[in-house]
Amino acid sequence: MSDPGDELKRAADVMRQVHERCVWTQAMTHEELVPYLVEESAELVDAVETGDRAGLREELGDLLWQVLFHAEIAAHDDADPFDVDDVARDLAEKMTRRHPHVFAGETAETPERVLELWNTAKAAEKRQRTSVLDGVSHAMPSLALAQKVLGKGAQVGVGLELVEAVAAAEAIAADDPDVLPESEEELGETLLGLVAVARAKGWDAERALRSAVRALETDIRGAEQDAEPDPFGR
């Protein structure tokens, strides 16, 4: 049996050889690779959600190839070169910092405590950020983005009226169980129904949700500006 990491090193070596000898590979840029990265990520999600173990193994490999590909392109950058070893080193150092209960003597007996330690370490690393929204990628699908921004808003007390509206609807649902979905499956059907309504009315469901998220982000940034300065810089 090979030592852990041997095949990973072999894959990185294959990537280097391909880049040296393949003119198509040599011509690719980070930007041109993005559609492939998105596609491979989506195929990995499909494999996870369908329970396809063989597909999961293959798609993890395809996604790893994208990481190696980007790192190889970066290694040939004249202004700021770095390679896959640099990427792996940075990752190992970050994960060591983010898991002080594993590497630095902290104690975490619950998943909640683990997340607290993670967020504390992350906040220390990202001191230059001025908003809870900094670092949120708008390249995410609108539903994922909405869920992310709602979570960020909760940190500064914004968007709570949406939670209150849900609570009120749940109170109504006590008398009428059909008011709110009671499972992820029912939620999916409800969302699909809303998209069907949008389609029937000629509305763009994606644009509508992104517009609502942008409005929520404006509210979050406004709340942050109105808040009292934290003397500890948090």
TrEMBL record:
Residues 29-103 form the NTP pyrophosphohydrolase MazG-like domain. It comes from the Bacteria. GO terms for biological process: dATP catabolic process; dGTP catabolic process; dTTP catabolic process; dUTP catabolic process; TTP catabolic process; UTP catabolic process. GO terms for molecular function: nucleoside triphosphate diphosphatase activity. This is MazG family protein.
